[in-house]
Specification:
The protein is mainly α and 152 residues long. The protein is built from six helices and two strands. The N and C termini lie far apart (32 Å).
Length: 152
């Protein structure tokens, strides 16, 4: 899927790889909320993909890096070039793709995924596109994401 240029959704300054997990989850949540998405979405995805860590190339999937295990050969160019060293680009990528998936679902008559939090895990799976057997793992992380985010 070609994501196209990043949108104008705000992404705050990254708190750093060594920041507490709650601070990273809150940073992600603020970015998502600023982009019109539920704050829980990126932390839910990152909890499954990387354990909410900014993994360098090769520490997760062989050709992937970052919080969302983005494929380097696909995404480390154009608007997202340098993403392994720039978590702000990783978060923008997630927000951009989640927004596009949402639009496609609405336009395709599948309804707005925002309306039903019980389907947020499926929404994340449509963004991150894991192997079929792993698609159900994201929804299970909603309580943990909420706990990490706390009251923003």
């Amino acid at each position: 899927m070609n994501a196209g240029p990043p949108d104008s959704s705000p992404v705050d300054s990254y708190p750093g790889d060594d920041a507490p997990r709650a601070a990273i989850a809150q940073w992600m949540a603020r970015g998502a909320i600023g982009g019109g998405l539920p704050g829980e979405l990126p932390p839910m995805g990152a909890l499954v993909a990387s354990g909410l860590r900014n993994l360098p190339l090769g520490q997760g999937e062989a050709d992937s890096a970052g919080y969302f295990q983005m494929r380097v050969g696909i995404w480390d160019r154009g608007d997202y070039a340098g993403f392994p060293e720039r978590p702000e680009l990783q978060l923008r990528w997630f927000i951009d793709l989640a927004t596009r998936v949402r639009r496609a679902r609405i336009e395709g008559g599948r309804g707005d995924p925002l309306a039903d939090e019980a389907g947020w895990g499926e929404w994340i799976a449509d963004v991150l596109r894991p192997p079929e057997q792993n698609r159900g793992r994201y929804q299970q992380r909603l309580p943990q994401a909420r706990e990490l985010i706390g009251a923003l």
